[in-house]
């Protein structure tokens, strides 16, 4: 759920990850309080512009985040009242005096009573320290079986007043080896302003992402531009671009026997959650969060 801003205008934004949220009848009931809250705060609004090529099932509803999809995360972080620290790259987790000592790439280790890991599962398996021996053989096999698709996303920012004349807000592409989805991002979020430049989001196919996963981002960006010219010829030159590599994009094979979470250690508590234990959409994340919460409540 990543939203990037233009370096020239912070009001010009583009969603580089999740594009919109589809609520199924099952989750409309199960997660009603979450949807009600986000809709009441204006963080989600119904998607009104057409997305060409989308397959809608009976009873499904689509929503967009007018301030960008990252506003959903910002809302929950703010509501939590927690002290959030970003860009802390965790490298080791060790047991010290019945607490967890967490080491980062820079800075001193810190101690915690409880640790919850929600990063992609392959990154959990890269952690060093006592955690390596705390994962049972059965759990390790299950974690190693979790797989993800990979893709690139390219965001394009344009000058205010630029016209991009297409009848849709988003379109799934089926006939291109590189590009799978294009969104006129400001239009998708129903933000049409003469003072804010439009933005485009382009998602590549998974096969393109896997093939070019280890290439320089600049080279990949050029390849995407070449294919984009075939789909939308004559696009104006953007004033800025942002290319995002999603090494772990969407879960293709979740942890089969650990629905919602996996508890690696009970005292002190170390639990894993996230879409690797459910499925890669908003409701999958909420479902995992609720499973983790139940474990925490029993522990506390």
TrEMBL record:
It comes from the Eukaryota. GO terms for molecular function: oxidoreductase activity, acting on NAD(P)H. It holds the Pfam family Amino_oxidase. Gene3D superfamilies: 3.90.660.10, FAD/NAD(P)-binding domain. Residues 48-290 form the Amine oxidase domain. The keyword Flavoprotein applies. Keywords: FAD, Flavoprotein. The keyword Flavoprotein applies. One of its GO terms (cellular component) is extracellular region. This is Renalase, FAD dependent amine oxidase. The lineage of its organism: Eukaryota, Metazoa, Chordata, Craniata, Vertebrata.
């Amino acid at each position: 759920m990543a939203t990037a801003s233009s370096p020239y205008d912070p009001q010009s934004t583009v969603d580089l990850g999740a594009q919109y949220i589809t609520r199924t009848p099952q989750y409309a009931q199960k997660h009603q309080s979450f949807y009600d809250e986000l809709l009441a705060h204006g963080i989600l609004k119904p998607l009104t512009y057409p997305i060409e090529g989308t397959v809608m099932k009976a009873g499904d509803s689509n929503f967009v985040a007018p301030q960008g999809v990252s506003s959903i995360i910002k809302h929950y972080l703010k509501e939590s009242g927690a002290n959030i620290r970003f860009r802390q790259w965790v490298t080791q987790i060790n047991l010290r005096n019945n607490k967890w000592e967490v080491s980062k790439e820079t800075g001193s280790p810190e101690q915690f009573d409880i640790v919850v890991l929600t990063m992609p599962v392959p990154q959990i398996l890269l952690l060093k320290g006592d955690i390596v021996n705390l994962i049972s053989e059965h759990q390790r096999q299950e974690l190693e079986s979790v797989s993800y698709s990979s893709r690139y996303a390219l965001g394009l920012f344009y000058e205010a007043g630029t016209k991009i004349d297409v009848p849709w807000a988003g379109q799934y592409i089926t006939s291109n080896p590189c590009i799978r989805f294009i969104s006129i991002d400001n239009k998708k979020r129903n933000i049409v302003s003469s003072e804010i430049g439009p933005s485009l989001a382009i998602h590549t196919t998974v096969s393109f992402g896997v093939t070019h996963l280890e290439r320089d981002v600049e080279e990949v960006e050029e390849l995407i531009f070449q294919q984009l010219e075939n789909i939308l010829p004559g696009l104006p030159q953007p004033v800025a671009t942002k290319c995002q590599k999603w090494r772990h994009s969407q879960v293709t094979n979740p942890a089969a026997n650990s629905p919602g979470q996996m508890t690696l250690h009970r005292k002190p508590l170390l639990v894993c959650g996230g879409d690797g234990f459910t499925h890669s959409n908003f409701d999958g994340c909420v479902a995992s969060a609720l499973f983790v919460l139940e474990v925490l409540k029993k522990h506390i």
